[in-house]
Specification:
single chain; 148 residues; mainly alpha; two-stranded antiparallel ribbon; 5 helices; 2 strands; 72% helix; elongated
Length: 148
Amino acid sequence: MLFPIFVVITLLEIYVLVSVGESIGGLATVLLVVITALIGSTLLKQQGWSTMKKAQHAMANGQAPAFEMMEGVVILISGVLLVTPGFITDTIGLLGLMPFSRTYFIDRILSKNADKVFAQKNTAFIHNRQSNKTNDKNNTIDGEFWED
């Protein structure tokens, strides 16, 4: 399913770049792509540090920084889109770096995937600590289990 999306986006990017190049010239188009990348990288750095500070603040208050982690994922994807040359990917990447639209993207992702995440009845996490003892009877298994 992703391959057709990549092909369509690539063809649309080529079409838009050629159209803009015909309208304002090739050099101006290249400069515009470079300028959007520079603006995007500055915004990427600023939003990344802001999200890091919010995550540290949440952890200092004893809260899990789940939303901040989701913001970090959207910021990472936006950074990849900004590195990709083209106006469509730059526009989507810049939207992902703006706090109001980033919140919208996260809400959409969570609303579409909430049923998948919360559909599991039992959730377990088991961590097996390796001991230096050769006797298998002395292995300790730490784990958590909860049932919704």
